């Protein structure tokens, strides 16, 4: 028996590949050879995301071929990857699997470098001290342009995409599980992608302090948080928990910083959108059956109710529309307070997040920022008159919260 592997047919179009495949099939099968319809795949390299052959299906005989479960790269990246791999490792004489692992490792390294560069720029504006003011201002303007052009929404979508069982993410069922990093060490693809997702999540948190989050951003992050929290049931994976914490704190920082409007040139966005407040209130008040997810939602509810209370403080009572909105906000505040006090949100913060090894072993600077905003949130929650007095409007049954005080809060004591 004769076998032939790793035969490649190349053409500039799908139609051209189909023509070559048909000639190849007829020629070989006339000589008694058989082409596997299940193992034959195709890899498409593009100069851009635009294609003029959406309707053309690559097929062998009458059976459509599947797109390879390996890397999806445009043509420029593909050529650069092969050149870099050859220069870096000298591929002559190596086994095909080793070549693939080396090339894939370089591809992931380039992607990690790009993500890390964005993280470094965001840190320079939000966290790092001692940089020249002119340099920080230049970086700030650059980041403003990037975020306003859609980088934050791309961060949110990437966090979701990289968590899928797909070639560019955790890997499909036919993808190689391991890659070789720049040191030549064999590492699991899933671990590499999880680390990338954590950096992206940190970028998302920092971006909120550079450009205020829009209502759509908040709703998209909330959706990502729910998806991430669902996967934590029974999970001991540290990175998965840290990613979920970052998504939660992205929302906490977005809600608290927007309501405080502490920086004069950072216009509040969320507090002016009445329809968003109504929609988001309905979303966060939906009760779930998963205790892990519900714990994260309780934590988010505490940030949301503080956001509403701070907005309520800033409303102009003389404005009729503002007064009507204020009444709605008060009802929402009371209903939210009832739930978080009944569920003891402070224990959720402690047991599900603050006391976990995953949280305590996260990046020190990120933890410092998380704790700072958490302290602002809890202090406001426990000192605000609406939370301390909590009257009983008609139709609303509130439990007594007089025993809740700043001195009795386990988080502030911690």
The run of helices and strands is HEEEEHHHHEEHHHHHHHHHHH
Based on DSSP secondary structure assignment, what is the total number of beta strands? Answer: 6
- Find the structural class using helix and strand composition: mainly alpha
Distance between the termini: 72 Å
Main sheet, how many strands, which sense, barrel?
2 strands, parallel
Low-confidence stretches: 391-408
* Quaternary class: single chain
The helix content, as a percent range, equals 55-70%
Question: What Rg, in angstroms, do the CA atoms define?
Answer: 27 Å
The largest sheet has its strands arranged as 1-4
Shape: elongated
Mean pLDDT: 78
Q: How large is the share of residues in beta strands?
A: under 5%
How many structural domains in the coordinates? Answer: 3
What is the count of DSSP helices, taking H or I runs of 4+ residues? 16
InterPro entries: Nup186/Nup192/Nup205 (IPR021827)
Subcellular location: Nucleus
Family: Belongs to the NUP186/NUP192/NUP205 family.
Protein name: Nuclear pore complex protein
Write the layout of secondary structure elements.
Layout: H1 14-30, E1 41-42, E2 59-60, E3 63-64, E4 66-67, H2 75-89, H3 96-126, H4 133-148, H5 151-161, E5 178-180, E6 186-188, H6 189-208, H7 215-230, H8 238-260, H9 274-284, H10 291-314, H11 320-342, H12 345-354, H13 357-360, H14 364-383, H15 385-389, H16 410-413
Parallel strand pairs: 1-4
Antiparallel strand pairs: 2-3, 5-6
Quick summary:
This protein has 414 residues and is mainly alpha-helical.
What would you say this structure looks like, in words?
With 414 residues, the protein is mainly α. The protein folds into three domains: 1-55, no CATH class; 60-211; 214-391 and 406-413, no CATH class. Helices cover 60% and strands 3% of the residues. It has helices at residues 14-30, 75-89, 96-126, 133-148, 151-161, 189-208, 215-230, 238-260, 274-284, 291-314, 320-342, 345-354, 357-360, 364-383, 385-389, 410-413, and strands at residues 41-42, 59-60, 63-64, 66-67, 178-180, 186-188. It has a two-stranded parallel sheet with strand order 1-4. Helix 7 (215-230) runs antiparallel to helix 8 (238-260), helix 7 (215-230) runs antiparallel to helix 10 (291-314) and helix 10 (291-314) packs across helix 14. One of its GO terms (cellular component) is nuclear pore. This is Nuclear pore complex protein. It comes from Capsicum baccatum. Belongs to the NUP186/NUP192/NUP205 family.
């Amino acid at each position: 028996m004769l076998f032939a592997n790793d035969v490649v047919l190349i053409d500039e179009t799908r139609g051209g590949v189909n023509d070559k495949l048909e000639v190849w099939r007829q020629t070989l099968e006339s000589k008694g050879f058989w082409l596997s319809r299940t193992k034959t795949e195709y890899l498409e390299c593009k100069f851009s995301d635009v294609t003029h052959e959406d309707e053309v299906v690559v097929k062998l005989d009458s059976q459509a071929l599947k797109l390879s479960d390996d890397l999806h790269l445009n043509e420029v990246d593909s050529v650069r990857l092969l050149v870099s791999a050859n220069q870096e490792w000298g591929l002559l004489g190596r086994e095909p699997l080793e070549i693939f692992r080396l090339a894939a490792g370089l591809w992931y390294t380039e992607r990690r470098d790009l993500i890390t560069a964005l993280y470094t720029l965001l840190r320079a504006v939000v966290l790092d001290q001692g940089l020249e003011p002119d340099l920080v201002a230049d970086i700030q303007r650059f980041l403003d342009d990037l975020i306003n052009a859609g980088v934050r929404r791309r961060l949110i979508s990437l966090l979701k995409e990289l968590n899928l069982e797909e070639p560019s993410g955790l890997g499909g069922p036919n993808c190689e599980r391991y890659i070789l990093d720049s040191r030549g060490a064999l590492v699991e693809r899933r671990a590499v992608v999880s680390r990338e997702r954590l950096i992206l999540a940190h970028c998302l948190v920092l971006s909120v302090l550079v450009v205020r989050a829009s209502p759509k951003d908040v709703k998209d992050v909330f959706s990502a948080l729910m998806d991430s929290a669902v996967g934590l049931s029974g999970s001991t994976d540290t990175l998965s928990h840290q990613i979920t914490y970052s998504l939660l704190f992205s929302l906490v920082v977005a809600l608290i910083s927007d309501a405080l409007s502490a920086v004069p040139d950072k216009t509040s966005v969320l507090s002016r959108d009445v329809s968003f407040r109504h929609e988001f209130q309905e979303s966060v008040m939906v009760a779930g059956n998963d205790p892990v997810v519900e714990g994260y939602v309780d934590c988010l509810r505490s940030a949301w109710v503080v956001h509403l209370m701070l907005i309520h403080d800033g409303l102009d009572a003389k404005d009729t529309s503002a007064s009507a909105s204020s009444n709605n906000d008060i009802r929402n505040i009371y209903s939210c307070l009832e739930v978080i006090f009944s569920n003891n949100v402070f224990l959720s913060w402690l047991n599900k997040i603050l006391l976990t090894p995953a949280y305590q072993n996260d990046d020190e600077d990120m933890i410092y920022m998380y704790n700072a905003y958490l302290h602002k949130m809890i202090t406001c929650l426990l000192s605000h008159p609406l939370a301390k007095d909590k009257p009983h409007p008609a139709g609303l049954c509130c439990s007594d919260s007089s025993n809740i005080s700043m001195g009795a809060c386990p988080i502030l004591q911690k």
